[in-house]
Specification:
8 helices, alpha+beta, ten-stranded antiparallel β-sheet, 24 strands
Length: 440
């Protein structure tokens, strides 16, 4: 019933109560006329009859109001159904559909293609002679191969400038420049030397520096293993030549994060490098053999030259103005390890490393109810000038396949697109809950 019809019905209801009916045209001041007026008064209606009539009217009003309310609810429900069937956007309920600022630590293989084990190591002739005196880049494929990329770099530093030729430049040898660079980068301002638990203060360091794009936020402490092969025989003065690593002796180095908490310095966390393996842990954990330091937040490993000389026969060139290129000895030791099979895995020994980063995520729960998104705006879904459903079996029971979820802002501008791994069937008999995860 329309509102105006409801009001008109109320107007037609009888009035209740004792109301006098006067003949005003015959009224005069005489007593006789006053008596006649009193006689013309309508007798009062009994209270019980008034209550019954009022109750009947009230019931009619309530019935009419309920009919009107039911009609309005039905019209709203029908409009809602029509809106949902043709819906293009659904607004998120921020309290129930969105979970923001979820932080988790994600690790992955350090090397190209997400690999965690590097068993092939190449240098490139594209590096100039001057560059190679300071550092050498190590690639995972031959430089001529497609996809070949630098994985890490090696360098040698000496606080006194020994082991490299200054070539006439006073106090400007490559080894001294490397030592000064990493001292300023990693040590506290008051420290002039790297100090390791293996030999104490040391002037001689070997540096492994991971490429920044491989490391992401940091080196994953406890998840790297450096294979080093013993240098056998005498090595040449200049390590760019042939270095003999034909012996079968091999060492693997890890950090001691499983034994002790990190020391915190100006460069962030610092762990010791010790003899051990990822699977077996620290060798002789009660009295470890210390080889250097690792700075995971910088992706830099400092190996003590004295310890490498003592344990792996590196024979570090510490001559004055002598072109030693000691970092190439470290390259030969690492790359030569792949020629030995790891008995635990039956694979060649490789350089194991993983990166780590904290990822902040927001989760959006896309709830698709049974009456929603059962039609498609794809032109092939309909046919004819009036838009009839082209697939006759869909008439009365339409079906679609959800393949993509788009996230929009309030201005209906597309901000992100999520692709499902496979199409998801949707009909009036099926509902869907799709979780969309955005990482920042």
């Amino acid at each position: 019933m329309k509102t105006e019809n409801f009001i008109e019905t109320l107007k037609q209801q009888p009035r209740l109560g004792g109301v006098p009916r006067l003949n005003l045209g015959a009224l005069n001041p005489s007593a006789t006329q006053v008596s006649r007026v009193n006689a013309d008064l309508v007798a009062p209606v009994p209270p019980q009859q008034i209550q019954q009539a009022a109750a009947a009217t009230t019931q009619q009003v309530q019935q009419l109001a309920q009919q009107l309310a039911n009609q309005m609810v039905a019209e709203m429900q029908q409009a809602s159904v029509l809106s949902r069937n043709g819906r293009t956007y659904t607004k998120f309920d921020l309290a129930n559909d969105v979970i923001a600022n979820q932080t988790e630590t994600v690790t992955a293989g350090m090397w190209s293609d997400g690999l965690a084990n590097l068993i092939t190591h190449f240098t490139s002739s594209t590096q100039t002679t001057t560059q190679r005196r300071y550092y050498v880049d190590v690639l995972h494929k031959a430089p001529s191969e497609t996809g070949s990329a630098v994985q890490y770099s090696l360098a040698y530093g000496n606080a006194l400038g020994s082991g490299s030729d200054s070539q006439g430049q006073l106090n400007d040898s490559p080894s001294k420049a490397i030592y000064s660079q990493y001292r300023q980068l990693l040590l506290n301002p008051s420290d002039s030397r790297f100090t390791t638990a293996g030999s104490g203060s040391t002037d001689s360091i070997y540096v492994i520096n991971f490429k920044r794009n491989r490391m992401k936020e940091r080196l994953d402490a406890g998840n790297f293993e450096i294979p080093l092969r013993l240098i056998s025989g005498s090595r040449p003065t200049n390590a760019t030549g042939s270095v003999n690593v034909s012996g079968s002796t091999l060492f693997t180095l890890i950090d001691d994060s499983a034994l002790a908490a990190a020391r915190i310095g100006d460069s962030g966390r610092v762990y010791n490098i010790v003899s051990g393996s990822i699977n077996g842990g620290v060798f002789n954990s009660t009295a470890p053999v210390y080889y250097g330091l690792v700075y995971p937040d910088y992706g830099t490993i400092i190996l003590d030259g004295k310890m490498l000389d003592q344990q792996l026969n590196f024979q570090t060139n510490t001559g004055s103005s002598s072109e030693g290129n000691n970092h190439f000895a470290l390259f030969h030791s690492i790359s030569g390890s792949a020629l030995i099979t790891n008995p635990a895995t039956a694979d060649p020994f490789g350089f194991l490393a993983r990166n780590s980063e904290k990822v902040t995520s927001t989760h959006y729960f896309v709830r698709v109810k049974n009456a929603e998104y059962n039609f498609s705006n794809n032109p092939s879904y309909v046919t004819g000038s009036v838009g009839q459903i082209s697939q006759t079996t869909f008439v009365g029971d339409p079906k679609t396949y959800i393949t993509t979820v788009g996230l929009y802002n309030d201005r209906q501008e597309l901000l992100a697109v999520a692709k499902l791994s496979k199409p998801l069937l949707k009909s009036f008999q099926r509902e869907a809950l799709i979780r969309v995860k955005l990482d920042f």
